[in-house]
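RECORD TYPE: inverse folding
INPUT: structure tokens
STRUCTURE:
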């Protein structure tokens, strides 16, 4: 009787799980799984204290991410502390812990996450599958790798219902073997299968081919979500992520500001904005609040100490700043003339018209008006010429500008 009830419970759980997965797949929503706190923090010098991780986790929750790769408990006590701080506080996203396909890693994940409700905690298992990893890192045959994967998924099933499995170095794994790993992983109980481009080697076209091959050769894929994870070694992580989305990937793993191992990961904010601006193309919804993006980028830069390049899309200092006269004139007439989206769309401060050698009369007159300096057209023209003569590196702030007006007035 007890056995019968246990079996009944397990089959009800499986049915609920399959229904939830089918619901996500049909809904067309792109689920964001953020890995800033794990792959992002793996970047040399990007160390975060547990309280800082909690702060970022709260901001990611407010932005609407579906799940948080919260850390690697078996690798660091600080990760365990950080995860425990998130438990009970971060209630929206699923918290997942990274694990090698080892029981001791899964035990460490369980101990870190045990106080989180079952439906909000998960493990993210990985095991190298490419010939390079099999031969040089693991020294295991294909059959042994499959066994390790299925055993660890089954073991994880004792403590977790959300189980992701990623074949590390998937993009350099033979497609046949890759798909075999996925089929076996799903049969063993994986609820998500990941496709990591571990060394960032793919192009968007090759990404699309991989995703199609997985869909064609993993018949039980209807029972698991397909997640993708791209590194940026060729500067293509975002493009590859979008290609995978076009082909039907359900979950995208990204980091804020694209921080991560080597050249980093796909930038969450860039993928979100591409989806937001090209809904007609992707026809997928995304639950991220775009107005939270710029402050999130700033927070991650400040807390990790990894500065954002001025030109970095979405969060960079130049994104809403221009010194060029023609652009300044256009922006003053209508901001959309020279912007793909307005600052408020991503929660950024306003447009910045920087005064310098390339600036024109419109921007100078506009700034003078803003700071309450009444200047006739010929005076503005003299000031513009004076700005052009300033030495390289000069910053034309309001003090300098007023001085230039004063000099021009007495000349
Ligand atoms: O890039 C990678 O392969 C990873 C795994 C741990 C999934 O980050
Ligand atoms: Zn990675």
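DESIGNED SEQUENCE:
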């Amino acid at each position: 009787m007890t056995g019968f009830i246990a079996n009944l419970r397990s089959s009800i759980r499986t049915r609920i799980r399959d229904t939830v997965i089918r619901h996500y797949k049909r809904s067309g929503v792109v689920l964001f799984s953020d890995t800033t706190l794990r792959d992002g923090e793996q970047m040399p010098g990007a160390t975060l204290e547990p309280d800082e991780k909690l702060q970022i986790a709260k901001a990611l929750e407010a932005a609407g991410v579906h799940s948080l790769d919260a850390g690697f408990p078996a690798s660091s006590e600080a990760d365990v502390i950080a995860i425990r701080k998130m438990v009970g506080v971060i209630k929206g996203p699923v918290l997942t812990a990274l694990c090698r396909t080892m029981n001791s890693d899964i035990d460490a994940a369980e101990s870190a996450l045990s106080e989180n409700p079952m439906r909000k905690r998960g493990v993210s298992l990985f095991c190298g599958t490419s010939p390079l990893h099999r031969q040089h890192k693991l020294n295991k045959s294909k059959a042994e790798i499959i066994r390790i994967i299925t055993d660890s998924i089954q073991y994880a099933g004792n403590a977790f219902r959300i189980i992701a499995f990623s074949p590390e170095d998937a993009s350099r794994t033979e497609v046949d073997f890759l798909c075999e790993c996925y089929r076996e992983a799903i049969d063993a109980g994986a609820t998500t299968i990941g496709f990591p481009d571990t060394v960032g080697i793919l192009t968007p076209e090759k990404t699309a081919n991989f995703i199609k091959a997985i869909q064609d050769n993993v018949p039980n894929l209807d029972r698991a979500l397909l997640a993708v994870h791209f590194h940026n070694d060729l500067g293509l992580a975002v493009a590859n992520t979008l290609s995978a989305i076009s082909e039907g990937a359900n979950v995208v793993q990204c980091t804020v500001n694209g921080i991560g191992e080597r050249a980093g990961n796909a930038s969450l904010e860039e993928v979100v904005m591409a989806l937001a601006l090209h809904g007609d193309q992707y026809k997928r919804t995304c639950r991220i609040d775009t107005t939270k993006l710029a402050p999130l980028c700033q927070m991650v830069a400040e807390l990790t100490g990894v500065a954002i390049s001025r030109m970095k899309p979405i969060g960079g200092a130049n994104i809403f700043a221009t010194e060029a006269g023609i652009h300044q004139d256009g922006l003053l007439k209508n901001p959309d003339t020279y912007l793909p989206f307005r600052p408020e769309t991503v929660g950024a401060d306003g447009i910045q018209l920087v005064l310098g050698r390339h600036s024109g009369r419109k921007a100078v007159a506009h700034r003078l008006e803003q700071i309450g300096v009444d200047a006739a057209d010929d005076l503005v023209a003299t000031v513009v010429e004076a700005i052009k003569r300033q030495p390289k590196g000069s910053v034309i702030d309001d003090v300098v500008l007023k001085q230039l007006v004063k000099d021009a007035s007495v000349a």
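NOTES: The mean pLDDT is 96.
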